[in-house]
Structures are given as C-alpha cells and as structure tokens.
Amino acid sequence: MATITPKRHAVVDTSHCVACGACAEVCPRGAITVWKGSYSVVDDGLCIGCGLCAKECPASVIRLEARP
Amino acid sequence: MKKSRWYNYLWIWSVIYFAMGFFHILFAWLGLISFFLPLIFAVGWGNKGFCNRYCDRGQLLRALGGQKGFSRRKDVPDWMKGKAFRYGFLAFFMAMFANMLYMTYRVYVGAAELSETVTLFWSIPVPWSFAYTGGAGTIEPWVAQFAFGFYSMMLTSAILGVLTMLAYKPRSWCVYCPMGTMTQMICKWKAKA
Q1: Containing domain of residue B133, as a range?
Q2: Is residue B181 less than 8 Å (CB to CB) from chain A?
Q3: SS3 for A48?
Q4: Using one digit for the tens of pLDDT, what is the confidence trace for B151-161?
Q5: Is B1 contained in some domain?
Q6: Which residues pair with A32 in a beta bridge?
Q7: Is B113 contained in some domain?
C-alpha cells in the first residue's frame, strides 16, 4: 500500500507556548503531547497537518508549514 | 469525533462553584482545590496535567467560546503572551492574594470588621450579605472573610477570562492565567534539573 505523506505539518513556537494543552485536546490523531509541562511537542509521524491545533491554540503559536 | 471521557465534563464544576457562592459564601473555600491541584501536579510530577486535562475553567471557556461560538477567535496581542505581561500578571495576582490573606489576618486578630462584600477587579465592592448568615455565631469571622476574598478573586479572574474569551481565542485566559504561568515555571525548572 502506498503511503501518502501530508504536505504540511504543525510547528510549535516553543518559546511562547504556554503548555495549556488545548492543542493536544483537539488533535484528532493524538499527535501532540505537552513535554514535561513546558511546551507542546508534535509527533511528526502522526501529524496530518489538519490545522485544528493551530486554530485552537490560545497563544496562536502553532503554524502549519510545508514539510521539508 | 473524539470519545468523551469523564473529565471532559469538569466545566460543570465552574458553574456549580459560582452558583454555590450565591447561596452561601463559605462554599468559596472549595476554590482552593483549583489552587492546590495544579501545584500538586507541577511540584509532584513536573507536568501540567491539571491545565491539560482537568481544568474546569479552560473547559468552560472552550465550550462557550469554541463549541458555542461566542469567541471572535482573534489572535491575542503579542504583549499578552510575552514574558513581561505573564510574569507581571502573576506577580500582581500574588500580591492581591497576599493582601487578601492579610485582610483575613486582620479580621482574625480583631483589627478589622468582617466585610460582607465581594470585591470585583480588586476595587469594586459588591454587597454580598445575602449569601452569609453568620451561622448564629458559629462561624469564625475570619473564615467568612477568607471566603469573601477568595470568591472575589475567583469571580474577577473568571470575568477576565470570559472577556478575553469573547475578544480573542476561547482559551485566551490560559495565556495569562497566574496558575498556568506559575505551574509552567515550576515544570520548566524541574525539566532542567
């Protein structure tokens, strides 16, 4: 089966992340975890670039970027 | 659609808490739960489990702003997520908390009378004696003073949260929530250690 790699992925500006976990709560893939209560980390292998986290983030520090 | 879990309904606690304060102010003491739980998560396990999963206020703001659609969903201004404002607001909030404890102490030692008011935004007194009977002398005045003070703090911060929910993203409060800032600070220290 051919795998499709999503074109975009979520990128967190960790320096301004408030670690509230709103992103993790809405992620349909469970791809986001709050690392040691410090900031959100996206599992790139799971992220499908849907953008729900970016929309929810109260600090607006998640952007969707083209995958390298 | 994600599966609902029991902790997705904790927003109800916010509603119950503020409603109970209209019936008897002593219920305000229960607000200490929202004060100690985040600290226990942060100090004990070095995580923000409270914010991430169990915070009733975060859920309520998300429900009203996101699911019910009352939020404009605009980005918060840059200064609001900056360190200066977040730490500054935490310091201000702690100072007001200390002041509230001092007021409680003054009533405890008899240097001040119990004030049956809820003070909004640290300055606007709202008569609240309807929710206090005095228990026919069975309630120590300082116990009631603390309750009035704590409820004032909870209500003020909830109103701020609702205002920024309407103006910006649903959970904008989380950006400058003093408990959130404090627990993130603790977690970052612990992560480094």
Answers
A1: 6-192
A2: yes
A3: coil
A4: 999 999 999 99
A5: no
A6: A42
A7: yes
* pLDDT digits 0-9 by tens, B56-113: 999 999 999 999 999 999 999 999 999 999 999 999 999 999 999 999 999 999 999 9
Residues 2 to 31 of A: which have CB under 8 A from any B CB?
Answer: 16, 18-22, 24-25, 28
Q: Which residue do the tokens 């983030």 mark?
A: A57
Does B59 fall in a domain?
Answer: yes
Number of domain units in chain B:
1
ipTM score for this prediction:
0.90
B155 within some domain: yes
Among A20, A28, A37, the residue with its CB nearest the CB of B42 is A37
In Å, how far are B15, B33, B51, B56, B157 from B182, measured between CA atoms?
A: 24, 16, 11, 18, 15
| A25-47 tens-digit pLDDT | 999 999 999 999 999 999 999 99
Q: Which residue has the tokens 């320096």?
A: A15
Amino acid making up residue B186: I
The mean per-residue pLDDT over the stretch B37-55 comes to 97
Among candidates A37, A38, A59 on the partner chain, residue whose Cβ is nearest the Cβ of B76: A59
Please report, rounded to a whole number, the percentage of residues in chain B having pLDDT higher than 70: 98
Q: Please give the CATH topology (third level) of the domain spanning A8-66.
A: Alpha-Beta Plaits (3.30.70)
User: A21 to chain B, minimum CA–CA distance in Å?
Assistant: 4
